[in-house]
Amino acid sequence: AFDAIMAAYGMPKGTDDQKAKRHQAIQDATRNAIDIPMQVAQVAHDGLSLAAAMASDGNPNSVTDAGVGAMCLRTAVLGAVLNARINCGDLEDQGYVEGVQLKCNELSREAMQRESDILSTVDKVLAGQ
Questions:
Q1: Is residue 54 very low, low, confident or very high in pLDDT (cuts 50, 70, 90)?
Q2: What confidence category does residue 129 fall into, taking pLDDT thresholds of 50, 70 and 90?
Q3: How many structural domains compose the chain?
Q4: Could you tell me which residues come within 8 angstroms of residue 93 by beta carbon, excluding any fewer than 6 positions away?
Q5: Which domain holds residue 80?
Q6: Please, how many CA atoms are within 13 Å of residue 7, restricted to the half-sphere of its CB?
Q7: Which residue of 17, 69, 115, 128 lies most exposed, with the fewest beta carbons within 10 A?
Q8: Which pTM does this prediction carry?
Q9: CA distances from 16 to 5, 11, 19, 30, 62 (A)
Q10: Mean pLDDT of 103-122
C-alpha cells in the first residue's frame, strides 16, 4: 500500500489535468493504505474467538498457548489500527475517516477486553478451577 502512495506522489503534476489525476491517485492509494490494515485488524479481532474457545474448552495443557495467542492477536489488532490511523490524516473524505476512527476505537476496545477475559480464563485453568 505504501508503494502505491509513493508512486502516486511521483506522478507528473505539470498541467491541471495531471494535477487532478495525481491528486485522485493519492487519495485512492491512501484509502487503500487505510483499508488493508483495517482488514488485518478485523481478522485478528475475529481470531480472538478461537483463542477464547481454546482457553475455555481446549486441552488444559495448551491453555497457556491460548493466552499467548490472545496477546499476539490483541497486538495485531492494535498495531493494524495504528497503521490505519496514521493514514487517515491524509484522506480528504472526512466521513470515511470518521467511520474508520470509530471502527478503530471499537476493535481496539474489544480486543483489549477479550484478551483480558481470555487471560482470566487461563489463570483459572492454571489454578485448577
A1: very high
A2: confident
A3: 1
A4: 27, 31
A5: 2-126
A6: 8
A7: 128
A8: 0.91
A9: 20, 13, 5, 21, 62
A10: 99
